[in-house]
Design a protein that fits this description.
Number of helices: 16
CATH class of one domain: Alpha Beta
Number of strands: 10
Structural class: alpha/beta
Shape: globular
Largest sheet: 6 strands, mixed
CATH architecture of one domain: 3-Layer(aba) Sandwich
Oligomer: single chain
Strand order of the largest sheet: 5-10-9-6-7-8
Distance between the termini: 47 Å
């Protein structure tokens, strides 16, 4: 594939200039060029994600070596320089001369031949003086130093240092820059033979599958550009799902025959609504119709709903909801691929009470809307979209949704709440 750098430039333009979400844009590009060699797709993915991940540091460096501030550059030129600096400083396998030459050619190809000299001059200047880059003083300006070297917005660094201290914040920031493999949940009923064939197929594709240390059906996939073309995806053998999402289902009690603890306590992370005027008793009180009703609000793309349906093994149903047609279409796509039949998908605003569902759910799962800062390591652009004001608005929205959805839990039922935050509240 000769246009790998051009594809990366297009990704950056969509994400940084038009506000698109990086994981969606990168996924669509890789799907479109599915016929390309694996190394080309890996190159596109790494350069696009890496440039976004190191954006603050890259812009800081560009502003040192360019007479024109990054914010004043033509959008295409600034993103071309950004991806070129990433190649030069963080992809050692690419010669500096090649980086400069390819950037100049791409500038001309995209209609900016008149700025080719500017592009060439900035990049060659950085190449010559890369050892002379001056960063903020680590001792005098620790917050700014961390912000630049870890490419994290300054206000987030300041908030975390205030809450967790400088050392813990530094460890958190280091962790976010490490590789974050894709985690998948293998369906429990595919059988040993198909499981072994699946693992062998992954190995043949050059993908390393590591079994999770405490979830037998969870695997971390290393060295993969995406999952849609992996063995077993179309067959519905596995679903992409984080471990935290799997654990929310595991501790809900679905499929265990016991939705109530024997005494008054509950599993960690699960709230139990006690029957009013009566003790919790011992054991699980089955619904009168013999089936469990599980409600998953804010469910898209449906990972927890699918796992819940699998756990119930047909003995009940899962009501899977989200706000928009697009979000529920993602749930439906996964249901179709995984072959689940006991899930009912609905469009519904979780902040508006549905009288028909009041005290009907044996299990409620609520993955509340959040800033996404908990998954910054996988969705590199999220940290640039978040603001202090948006975090406050999200907290109010979470409270509004909780005040509504708690009413859906029948006496004796369980509610599992999940949200992804690294804020100190």
């Amino acid at each position: 594939m000769d246009n790998t750098r051009e594809l990366v430039l297009d990704v950056l333009m969509e994400v940084l200039e038009k506000g698109a979400y990086s994981h969606q844009v990168i996924r669509d590009v890789l799907d479109k060029y599915n016929y390309s060699e694996g190394r080309d797709k890996a190159f596109v993915k790494r350069m696009a994600e890496g440039t976004l991940e190191r954006l603050i540091q890259i812009d800081y460096i560009l502003n040192q070596f360019s007479k024109v501030l990054v914010s004043k550059m033509k959008p295409l030129i600034r993103n071309l320089l950004r991806m070129s600096v990433y190649q030069m400083l963080f992809m050692d396998s690419i010669p500096e001369r090649a980086v400069c030459n390819e950037a100049v050619k791409l500038a001309g190809k995209r209609g900016f031949r008149g700025l080719s000299g500017f592009v060439n001059g900035v990049l060659r200047n950085i190449a010559r003086k890369r050892e002379d880059i001056v960063y903020p003083d680590k001792e005098l300006e620790p917050e700014r130093y961390m912000s630049v070297t870890y490419s994290m917005p300054l206000w987030l660094v300041e908030m975390w240092i205030s809450a967790y201290g400088r050392e813990n914040t530094s460890r958190m920031l280091e962790g976010l820059l490490k590789e974050h493999p894709v985690t998948v949940r293998l369906c429990e009923d595919i059988g040993v033979e198909r499981k072994e064939a699946w693992l062998a197929g992954l190995k043949q594709e050059g993908v390393e599958a590591e079994q999770h240390p405490y979830l037998a059906n969870a695997y971390r996939l290393l060295h993969t550009e995406g999952v849609r073309n992996l063995p077993g995806f179309e067959e519905g053998y596995f679903a992409v799902q984080d471990v935290s999402s799997m654990l929310a289902v595991e501790i809900s009690g679905a499929g265990t025959g016991s939705l109530l603890p024997e005494e008054s306590g509950a599993d960690e992370g699960i709230l139990v609504r006690k029957p009013s005027g009566q003790s919790t008793g011992s054991g699980y009180r089955k619904p009168e119709d013999g089936g469990i009703v599980a409600a998953d609000v804010c469910a898209s793309p449906g990972g927890k709903s699918l796992y819940m349906a699998e756990k119930l093994k047909g003995a009940g149903k899962v009501i899977s909801r989200d706000l928009t047609e697009y979000k529920v279409s993602l749930i439906r796509d996964n249901i179709e691929r995984m072959g689940c039949r006991n899930i009912e998908v609905q469009i519904h605003d979780a902040g508006i009470l549905d009288e028909s569902l009041v005290e009907q759910a044996d299990i409620l799962l609520a993955d509340l809307p959040c800033s996404g800062l908990g998954v910054m390591g996988k969705k590199r652009d999220i940290k640039y979209k978040a603001t202090q004001e948006s975090l406050a608005e999200l907290a109010a929205l979470q409270r509004k949704i909780l005040d509504v959805v708690w009413q859906y839990v029948k006496p004796g039922g369980r509610a599992g709440l999940q949200y992804l935050y690294r804020q100190p509240w």
